[in-house]
Each structure stands twice: as C-alpha cells, then as structure tokens.
Amino acid sequence: MREMRIRPARPVDAEGITSLLHASSAYQGRYSSILDGYEFTEDQVRDTVCFLAEDADGRLAGYYSLVPDPAELDLLLVADAEQGSGLGARLVRHMLEQARNLGLASVRVVSHPPAEGFYLRMGARRVGVVPPRPPKVDYERPELVWDLLVE
C-alpha cells in the first residue's frame, strides 16, 4: 500500500468527497440511482466525525463519515485505484477507534450490498435488512453493527 495519511476532513473537502463518490465504480449500474443529485456537503463535514485518507501528494484516496448520535457509519469509500490495498480496513479501524474515544457502545451501518462481506470481515455482525426505498433505492440493504463495549 502506498503511504496514506488519515486526517480530519475540513468543510472545503466536501466537493472532493462528492467527486470521489460519484467516480466510484461501486455506484454504477444497478446502484447508480442512490447518487442521483447527491452531494456531500460542508455541513456534513462539520456535523459528523469525518476523516479522509490522502496520499503524499494530497490526493484524496478515501474517507468516512461517522454520525455520533445515533451512532452510524454514514459513508465509507475508497477510490477505485486503492481497492484491495488495505486502505478500507485502515479507515474502518480508524473509525472504530474514534467511536470508542467518543464512548459509543456500538456503530450501525446500512451497507451497500456488495460491501457487506467487507464489513463482516471487519468484525461487524448482521442484524437485519433495510427494505427498498424507491425510487432511489430499489434494493434491500444489509444492516450491520459493530459492538464496541467489551464486558
């Protein structure tokens, strides 16, 4: 894996995050409708725990957005060129560390269907299914949770 640094996102990063999301092959074809008109906003950066990964030249390679209350991984994405590099796992570990630091007992994620296996490998457990919400989302999405408190 190329050297990547993870840093807090700034409101000015919202446009780059939106561009990375729309360029992702994960949201093409059957899954493209969920992004119709979607824009990651400066308010989302301010209102969530949002971090991004960038390479040594400052190019955006991935990001995540954690909503603290109720605790939910809102978005996590790795650029197509970094798929399989371990960056996604690194971002999940970082997000879980941030969640623990906030004192969260668990983190929920409504998964993009092809990403479910990744989240399961990262320690999440499936707790249900979120039904379709046409017209943007005409497919079921897995609901998973990471339990953070160890008794």
Overview of this protein structure:
This protein has 151 residues and is α+β, with helices and mostly antiparallel strands. It has one domain: Aminopeptidase, CATH 3.40.630. 25% of the residues lie in helices and 31% in strands. It contains four helices and seven strands. The mean pLDDT is 95.
Describe the secondary-structure layout.
Elements: E1 4-8, H1 14-23, H2 42-47, E2 49-55, E3 60-68, E4 71-78, H3 87-101, E5 106-110, H4 116-121, E6 125-130, E7 141-147
Antiparallel strand pairs: 1-2, 2-3, 3-4, 5-7, 6-7
List keywords for this structure.
151 residues; alpha+beta; four-stranded antiparallel sheet; three-stranded antiparallel sheet
The helix content, as a percent range, equals: 10-25%
> What is the element string, with H for helices and E for strands?
EHHEEEHEHEE
How many domains, in number, for the residues? Answer: 1
Q: In CATH, what is the homologous superfamily?
A: Gcn5-related N-acetyltransferase (GNAT)
> What is the residue-mean pLDDT, rounded to a whole number?
95
The CATH top-level class label: Alpha Beta
Work out the helix count: 4
EC number: 2.3.-.-
Protein name: GNAT family N-acetyltransferase
Pfam families: Acetyltransf_1
Enzyme class: transferase
